[in-house]
């Protein structure tokens, strides 16, 4: 008789696979749950670590896990939003990354490039881990003076170059390191500079302040004993700054409102070689007699002013720009007191175009006096 009909003992062997499968499913479920808990705990640990850093800096922590994968040690400490090429182990390149903050800077970095981003502020302590920094490049950002900490740069004792041009600064950042040699603050909105802003900067050789809103700086630069180049183009100056450093070689003052040059100006600064005063409001009345007759001067730019006469210059001057004035005559005595074979000018470039004279106004004797001139534009 068929046991399935008679109600006899049923063969349960056919049900055993289902029971075993159920036991395995329970085991797998327990493993999955344990794994999920473990991953959650790992996530909590990582999140707790991330709280020590900023929005992106915590990513740098993850790079530490790459050691077992054979990554170079130089790459491990580099923020993921930047590049630290092994060919330049002390440089960190973070430019043009749309960054809104300064990322974590490892302690071995000496050169950090952060230009062309969207950084608006820098909090105190950002660079405290990287006190060996030599260059900090931050031009073309959106830095606001109210969002820069008072001691952001104060611990960078080795800082040599600080580039902050093309930002939204209204003040010179306070407590700058005294050892800076190259400071660039051009193309900002600075209207006033505190008297102690550059105090003690004995190594400062280059200072860029062009394209700001400065009207008067007083004797601000007097103590800058090493300064050789001062750029103050495109400000609102009504006079040449007072008490300039004695070692100054290059002075750029174009696009201001300067009307005169002090008597004996160049005698006070005997090392000046390049003076640019184009696009001001200079007149003959504002130029004392022979004020530019100084032997050290190499280049003089007086273009785009209101001069009616060629000023007397030194025979050692090599480049003279007088275009776009109101000059009515070519006075050979401005270049040579006498015209002979031994008394001649070293002038190589002379621009007189856009004035009220022409080539026919240049006397024949000019061939002796201006024998080294390669180009005269009238």
TrEMBL record:
Residues 77-111 form the LRRNT domain. InterPro entries: Leu-rich_rpt (IPR001611), Leu-rich_rpt_4 (IPR025875), Leu-rich_rpt_typical-subtyp (IPR003591), LRR_dom_sf (IPR032675), LRRNT (IPR000372), SLRP (IPR050333). Keywords: Disulfide bond, Extracellular matrix, Glycoprotein, Leucine-rich repeat, Proteoglycan, Repeat, Secreted, Signal. One of its GO terms (cellular component) is extracellular space. Pfam families: LRR_4 (PF12799), LRR_6 (PF13516), LRR_8 (PF13855). It is found in: Secreted, Extracellular space, Extracellular matrix. SMART domains: LRR_TYP, LRRNT. The keyword Cell wall biogenesis/degradation does not apply. Belongs to the small leucine-rich proteoglycan (SLRP) family. SLRP class II subfamily. Affects the rate of fibrils formation. May have a primary role in collagen fibrillogenesis. Binds to type I and type II collagen. This is Fibromodulin. It comes from Amphiprion ocellaris.
């Amino acid at each position: 008789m068929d046991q399935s009909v008679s109600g006899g003992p049923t063969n349960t062997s056919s049900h055993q696979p289902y029971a075993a499968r159920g036991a395995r499913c329970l085991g797998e479920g327990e493993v999955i749950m344990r794994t999920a808990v473990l991953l959650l705990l790992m996530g909590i640990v990582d999140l707790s670590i991330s709280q020590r850093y900023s929005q992106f800096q915590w990513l740098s922590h993850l790079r530490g896990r790459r050691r077992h994968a054979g990554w170079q040690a130089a790459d491990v400490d580099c923020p993921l939003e930047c590049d630290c090429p092994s060919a330049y182990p002390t440089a960190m390149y973070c430019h043009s990354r749309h960054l809104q903050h300064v990322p974590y800077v490892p302690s071995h970095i000496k050169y950090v490039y952060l230009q062309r981003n969207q950084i608006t502020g820098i909090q105190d302590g950002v660079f405290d881990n990287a006190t060996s920094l030599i260059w900090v490049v931050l031009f073309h950002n959106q830095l606001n003076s109210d969002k820069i900490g008072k001691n952001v740069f104060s611990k960078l004792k080795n800082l040599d170059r600080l580039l902050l041009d093309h930002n939204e600064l209204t003040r010179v950042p306070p407590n700058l390191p005294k050892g800076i040699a190259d400071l660039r603050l051009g193309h900002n909105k600075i209207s006033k500079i505190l008297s102690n802003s550059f105090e003690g900067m004995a190594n400062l050789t280059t200072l860029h302040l062009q394209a700001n809103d400065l009207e008067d700086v007083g004797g601000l630069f007097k103590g800058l004993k090493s300064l050789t180049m001062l750029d103050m183009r495109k400000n609102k100056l009504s006079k040449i700054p007072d008490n300039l450093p004695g070692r100054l070689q290059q002075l750029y003052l174009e696009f201001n409102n300067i009307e005169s040059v002090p008597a004996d100006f160049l005698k006070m600064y005997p090392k000046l070689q390049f003076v640019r005063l184009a696009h001001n409001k200079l007149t003959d009345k504002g130029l004392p007699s022979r004020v530019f007759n100084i032997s050290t001067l190499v280049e003089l730019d007086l273009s785009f002013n209101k001069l009616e006469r060629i000023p007397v210059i030194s025979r050692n001057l090599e480049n003279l720009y007088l275009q776009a004035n109101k000059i009515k005559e070519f006075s050979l005595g401005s270049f040579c007191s006498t015209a002979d074979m031994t008394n001649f000018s070293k002038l190589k470039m002379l621009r007189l175009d856009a004035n009220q004279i022409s080539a026919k106004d240049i006397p024949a004797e000019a061939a002796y006096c201006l024998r080294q001139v390669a180009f005269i534009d009238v």
